[in-house]
Amino acid sequence: MVGYELSHLIYPSDVGIYQLNNVSDICEHESFKRPDPLRHFKDYNGDFDVRNKHYVASAAFTGVHGYAFGGVWLLCGVTLAIFMIVKFLCGGSATLPFLDHYYIHIFFLLLLFTSLAIVASCFVLATSQKTMRRTEKLKESVVGIGEDALGTIGRVLKTTNQMQFLLLPYNPQICASLNSTTQDLRSNSRVIRRFIDRSGQSFDKATHTSYIAHLVVLTVNLVTLVAALVLTLLHWRPGFIIIIFCFWILTSLCWFLTGFDFFLHTFADDACTAFEDFVENPQNSSLGSMLPCINESFSGKLIAEIGSTIHNFIVELNSNMSVIYRLLGVSEVNEESIGVIKVCDPFSGAPNFSYIPKSCPQDAIRIGDLSKILSRFTCHQEGTAEACRKEGRFVPLASYNMAHAYSRSIQDLLDIYPDLQKLSKCTIVKNKVAEIVLHQCRPIRVSTRLLWSSMLSLSIIMVVLVFVLVAEASQCWRKPFFTRFRTSTSR
Questions:
Q1: What is the 3-state secondary structure (H, E, C) of the chain?
Q2: How far is CA 172 from the centre of its chain?
Q3: Mean pLDDT, all residues of the chain
Q4: Does residue 342 or residue 60 have the better pLDDT?
Q5: Which residue has the higher pLDDT, 431 or 100?
């Protein structure tokens, strides 16, 4: 009876205690409609999925305004440089004489926009660093989802291995079933480990690349801004032309970063929206197929079957304790000396079979303690049966070992039942995602929006500054700054 009940309990796990990415059919929900450069700019009509290159390409294309302006600005710079060189070689003047009467205004505009550019560059650097920290925190939370699931599966795996060791001498068929379950658990552990590694690498690559790009471009920009002020005062014409050339390239890079920052903001907003959808309805969320979560319809049946099997087994065990005694070789006289033993049943009755571990009577024992009670009546010395009977040790050692193996195995299964519930109900993933939505989504949305808007402001300032620098260069070409300044003050 014990072997039959336990084998019936284990066999449902053949289909896999933890099936990763086995979600129910996804219902229709809102999809993105964005041009996809990888499909000749046809609309991408899918959901949020970082594994899909078409989603990533369509999200990156949202920053096309920044990329386009940066490209056009760079092309205009090349055209202007060619025009100036040709005109200089032909002996023409590269100056703008109609600006002669506005040199003081141009100089103060140069100071103003240079100061604004310095302040904006420092602000973007600070915002980029803050965004990186918040993205790192988000990465830790997302990776933590997999780590927690992996830890839970590890505990279940350890228990199934121990059950195999205990039951192998008595029921190889159950051990074969457990071995199949163990292989499923190990396979799913590898899948989760890949999820952790890929998620961590993707976050690190995106955040560090973005931060380093901002750091390099803005640091060079700050150095060039200071150099522009110095060269304006020193009136070194070749250096001033080089500064304008550098600023033109830096302005293009700023616009490219503006487009990338808008893509980053779009991606963060999409991710948080997907997290929010997952919290509301995990089975109908596009994020469900990416997170380590179990099929709810499958898991509900599995957990209910495990609960009902353990419940029915313990009920039958308690109602047939006399039969168990006779199977173990205990006589009716010895049965009276042991007393009536009731095993704790932590499950409610049908139809829910809810797990309520504190619902047992005070005089009930855990099923794992059954072997401890029987050990007091077990004859551990071979060849001294008469001595054992005199001492009240009437349970054969072989019977005790079998009872110990089955009772310990069921107790181990009860010990990991809360972990199985967490896996089946996706509690680990749901709690982590809910925490992300509650504490991290708003800050990272604000940070990425602020990064994009500040980068846009810097790019606009740089465009105006380049025009002012071109005007100042025209004035410097005609006469030195101090000469113009003395002329202005004498007037």
A1: CHHHHHHHHHHHHHHCCCCCCCCCCCCCCCCCCEEEHHHCCEEECCCCCCCCHHHHHHHHHHHHHHHHHHHHHHHHHHHHHHHHHHHHHCCCCCCCHHHHHHHHHHHHHHHHHHHHHHHHHHHHHHHHHHHHHHHHHHHHHHHHHHHHHHHHHHHHHHHHHHHHHHHCCCCHHHHHHHHHHHHHHHHHHHHHHHHHHHHHHHHHHHHHHHHHHHHHHHHHHHHHHHHHHHHHHHCCHHHHHHHHHHHHHHHHHHHHHHHHHHHHHHHHHHHHHHHHHHHHCHHHCHHHHCCCCCCHHHHHHHHHHHHHHHHHHHHHHHHCHHHHHHHCCCCHHHHHHHCCCCECCCECCCCCCCECHHHCCCCCECHHHHHHHHHCCECCCCCCHHHHHHCCCCECHHHHHHHHHHHHHHHHHHHCHHHHHHHHCCHHHHHHHHHHHHHCHHHHHHHHHHHHHHHHHHHHHHHHHHHHHHHHHHHHHHCCHHHHHHHHHHC
A2: 41
A3: 76
A4: 60
A5: 431
Point out the least confidently predicted range of 74-78, 355-359, 484-488: 484-488
259 within 8 A of 459, measured Cβ to Cβ? no
Would you say 21 and 51 are in contact if contact means Cβ atoms under 8 Å apart?
no
Residues in the chain: 491
Neighbours of 190 (CB within 10 A): 12
Please write the tens of the pLDDT for every residue from 21-77: 443 333 344 567 888 898 888 888 878 877 788 888 898 899 999 999 999 999 998
Contacts of 482 (CB under 8 A, 6+ apart): 235
Distance CA 352, CA 368 (A): 24
Q: Is the dihedral of CA 371, 377, 378, 380 positive or negative?
A: positive
Kindly state the average pLDDT of the residues 109-126.
Answer: 92
Task: Give pLDDT tens digits for 408-417.
Answer: 888 888 888 8
**Is it the case that residue 269 has pLDDT exceeding 60?**
yes
Q: With 90 as the cut, is the pLDDT of residue 212 above it?
A: yes
Q: What is the mean pLDDT of residues 438-457?
A: 94
- CA 155 to each of CA 98, 412, 415: distance values in angstroms, whole numbers, following the listed order: 81, 11, 10
- Higher-confidence position of 103 and 358: 358
First to last CA, the chain: 114
Q: What CA–CA distance (Å, rounded) separates 311 from 343?
A: 11
pLDDT at residue number 457: 95
Residue pair 145/291 in contact (Cβ under 8 Å)? The answer is yes
